[in-house]
Amino acid sequence: MKNKDWLVMEDGKCLPCKSAREWDLLTNEYRLYRFMTEVEDVMNEAVEKETTEADFLPTLRRLVRKLVLNCYWVKTQYPEPCTKTGISIKMLYDELGLPITVQTETILPGEGTPIHNHGTWGVVAILAGKQKNRNWRRSPSPEYQDKIEQVGEIVLEPGDIISFTPEAIHSVEAVGEEPTITFNLYGETEGYKRFMFDSINHQAKHF
């Protein structure tokens, strides 16, 4: 089923979530600046009420879907694929003091990311192509404190939105014959909590 919403938690499980109906989100002149204002309002309220990511991520997923549905400009703001790394990122908004990252990302077919977490919450909307998300969880042992294990995987298509809590661990790969293009929204990264994982040697290092 298209246009699905998902939430990945620290335990690696990818949970299906209720998705807003498109006809409830249709509006005129919904631009990036309106979206940013509404996201900032959600984050300020979350801080004031001390709510968890699981509480406010549904609202952010709804806002991301509203933006992608109504703002054609966002869909045109994607970076050209980088043939050297296979991954390109374009910042859409950057303001000193605003702890929110808004960007689009292009990944060439067959390319992907290392296993990592973000050290913050995240919401990613698939704009084009297909993306495989592999989800992991920590599974420490007396010998390997940074050991992880794969919990599952899911292939996302255009219209799908996936969200993450700060400790969720995943890796992504563009599958199919065309690049994957995504719209990415992240909170303020806590660097000491962000890691890249080596699932073979059972190691983790700051990312």
Automatic annotation (TrEMBL):
Name the UniProt record assigns to this protein: Cupin
